[in-house]
């Protein structure tokens, strides 16, 4: 009787649960179906009735990308060309001219020609503006014009480019390009090895392992792993790189999502290369994603001392989902958490300011490393040892984002000579030249204070907003403008280092820059000093 009563009670409850779940699903499904039907009808009527000819593919591409803009910047629609570019980025191999290129509506700008590859052999330099590829003007090409530079191995491509206001042409023979994850490694001193890990493509862990083995063979008893400016890449490679320094079976990352199957724990799966060698990891504000998985994991496990400046703060994980006709949706599926439980995501895309910008996390929670050291979440990995010249702020970020430093270095290259990197010295007066360049350029940097003042001026309340008050506001804005210029002096050390890096690369390529780093870079000098003092190194990891 009890069993029968239990069954009679449980079955209705189960049925009610199924009904409620199904009802919720049907409600969501109905809303989705309703919106799709509205959009389909609108799209059809627009294409049939609009006064001018429309391009359905272009309209749809715009519609999709506009929709995704309301989410985070990492959730993206990939058309067929984007899918191929995504594969190339992860594989680290493609056929092309061998140069980092920045795309504009009417031109492509060479950011960096890779030493010994076609662009370099043809004499192309950083700052060159490609305006025509073959017979196609970049301004007339509606797709991504960088794709025109790629092609079959040993095929030829003619480019027309503008350099210092003068047009020129060059014929390039494409070749297979290998994008190394580890573009450089070397002994920094008799006992310290230095490894640059620039990206987390499919080659990252194996190239890092090979560099580590080679350096140890040369006598390295301690290692500096440089993750500065590394934007990330494959999650699996981040786990494998960490695994080189920690034992098999260690938890490195946990991902949490609203979709249960995406909730996963990622542990090291291989035998480590070396769990004892002293290790310093360098990071800065452009170390992101997989770089933060490695640095955050090694910090939480007290396996390395993290040095430099706070990292970018990208704690979101993307997954490519296949769509029809060879397209994909690269969608953020989860947040990742370091071994201590930290999520280091800095921006909250669910909450935005009046201008639509994601709000930065301001409340940090404390966690503890394996040895009990205090670490925080919500805003990147904070280094154990901060290096002042690696610091960044909105002004420095704006100078980089608007390519002011890049453009100054372009002009500098054509008016100065440097013979060897070992003799390189940047004249102190160059910074004064840079300040003059900034003042003459159209560089526009608006602080949060200026935005607030301008907002107040544009929404003035005439009842209380007298001429005197308006005059005070304008005087305050003028004072802020003066302080901005003064800030260029305040942060001259940080800005000069960026100038130095950009200029050295123009003359001596990336390899020359790393050669210069070994004896001049403040972060490497600090790391060498710390690693050379075992007591100080151990004290940091124990406190």
UniProtKB/TrEMBL annotation:
Coiled-coil regions, chain positions: none
Keyword DNA damage attributed: no
Domain PDZ: 82-164
InterPro entries, sorted: ClpP/crotonase-like_dom_sf, PDZ, PDZ_6, PDZ_sf, Peptidase_S41A, Tail-specific_protease
Keywords: Hydrolase, Protease, Serine protease
Keyword Hydrolase set for record: yes
Gene3D superfamilies given in the database record: 2-enoyl-CoA Hydratase, Chain A, domain 1, 2.30.42.10, 3.30.750.44
The family this protein is said to belong to: Belongs to the peptidase S41A family.
Descriptive protein name: S41 family peptidase
Organism in which the protein naturally occurs: Robiginitalea marina
